[in-house]
Amino acid sequence: MTTHTPRIFSGVKPSGGLTLGNYLGAIKRFVDMQGPQFETIYCVVDLHAITVWQDPAELTDATREVAAGYLAAGIDPSQSILFNQSQVSAHAELAWLFNCVARVGWMNRMTQFKDKAGKNAEKVSLGLYAYPSLMAADILLYHATHVPVGEDQKQHVELTRDIASKFNHDFKAEDFFPMPEPIIEGPATRVMNLRDGSKKMSKSGESDMERINMTDTADTIAKKFKKAKTDPEPLPETLDGLKDRPEARNLVDIYAGLSEVTPEQVIAEFAGAGWGKFKPALADLAVAKLGPISEEMARLMNDKGEIDRILGEGADKADAIAQPILDRAYDITGFLRSRKR
Ligand code: TYM
């Protein structure tokens, strides 16, 4: 077994703006995991973004915006490697090997593909279908051991384990790829749509009122929470009382995620309160937490050179880890090394 400091890899797609779901389910947790106990590698996964159409100029902007979101939230380039995926070509190369390891039947089970493709499965890109093997390459290229993600990515990390284990087994390369663990922790691993508690909050939802964007102004945040769907009941005495109240539960979870307490503690504080009290408290909390981040994002977006420099330096560091692992994967596969490097 490869032994090194436990290594974290995770990524966010630059397809549209960042949401509160991305922040609470991913980016905030990435920040919290920085420190001596882990080596941390965070990526703007631009190759993943083009699995659905992206306007080229918007892709460039969105890539910088996700990088700005990471930095403004507290990712520190002196502690973490921060880069954009397309600059390290080993991702695409290892993904091809994995396309030849993963089975079509495995891909057919991916619920996110089914959701995204819907009735249109014949018309979506081949990349959207193959996407989980690129995600497996992202993780395994660094021999990452831990992958913090939101709930919706769990199945993809499990598939990554299947790919690692089939590669190791087929090529008799025991333990070459480690089995990465998904880390899905905290109260907000599945932030729901503000207008429909049965749907995930996402960047691509139809109405902007469904989601909080990391760049929303204080007024917009207050308006969106005020209009968020709820029910007529006040907050219950215990968490159990939220069982069949998905919209109410979602707002409690968001409050817990933002204030770094458990949902039980939120209930203890607000038991019996009506929405007229809870929603403004939630809006104030969200503005207090997100305001400084969106201000810093705006500042960074005016300094594109600085963002590009940080991403470029991160890509050099990422490449230095990735290339030797890709070379070994090529050797294990039996590719002839005819060029001297
Ligand atoms: P993406 O870009 O859709 O989302 C980035 C991260 O945000 C989390 N997330 C949420 N968490 C809680 N509630 C929500 N409503 C919510 N919406 C999004 C996601 O779970 C994710 O952690 N395939 C990945 C990106 C990726 C990746 C990787 C992740 C590519 N390669 C390797 C980890 C490791 C994706 O599309 O995430």
Q: What's the gist of this structure?
A:
This is Tryptophan--tRNA ligase. It contains 13 helices and 5 strands. It is mainly alpha-helical.
Features:
341 residues, mainly alpha, Tyrosyl-Transfer RNA Synthetase, 2 domains, 5 strands, 52% helix, globular, cytoplasm
What does this structure look like?
It contains 13 helices and five strands. The chain is mainly alpha-helical. The chain folds into two domains: about 5-190 and about 305-335, Rossmann fold; about 210-300, Tyrosyl-Transfer RNA Synthetase (Orthogonal Bundle), CATH 1.10.240. Strand 1 (about 5-10), helix 1 and strand 2 form a beta-alpha-beta unit. Helix 3 crosses helix 12 and helix 9 (about 220-225) runs antiparallel to helix 12 (about 275-300). It is globular. The model has no long low-confidence stretch (mean pLDDT about 95). Bound molecules: tryptophanyl-5'AMP. This is Tryptophan--tRNA ligase. Its main location: cytoplasm. Homodimer.
Q: What is the annotated CATH architecture of the largest domain?
A: 3-Layer(aba) Sandwich
The average pLDDT is 96
Distance between the ends: 27 Å
CATH topology of the largest domain: Rossmann fold
Helix content: 40-55%
General form? globular
Low-confidence stretches: none
Q: What class would the helix/strand composition place it in?
A: mainly alpha
Please describe the biggest sheet, giving its number of strands, its sense, and whether it closes into a barrel.
3 strands, parallel
Number of domains: 2
Give the CATH superfamily of the largest domain: HUPs
The helix-strand sequence is EHEHHEHHHHEHEHHHHH
Total helical elements: 13
Question: What proportion of the residues form beta strands (DSSP E)?
Answer: 5-15%
From the alpha carbons, calculate the radius of gyration and give it in angstroms: 21 Å
User: Which small compounds were modeled alongside the protein?
Assistant: tryptophanyl-5'AMP
Strand order of the largest sheet: 1-2-3
Instruction: Tell how many strands the DSSP assignment holds.
Output: 5
CATH classification, class level of the largest domain: Alpha Beta
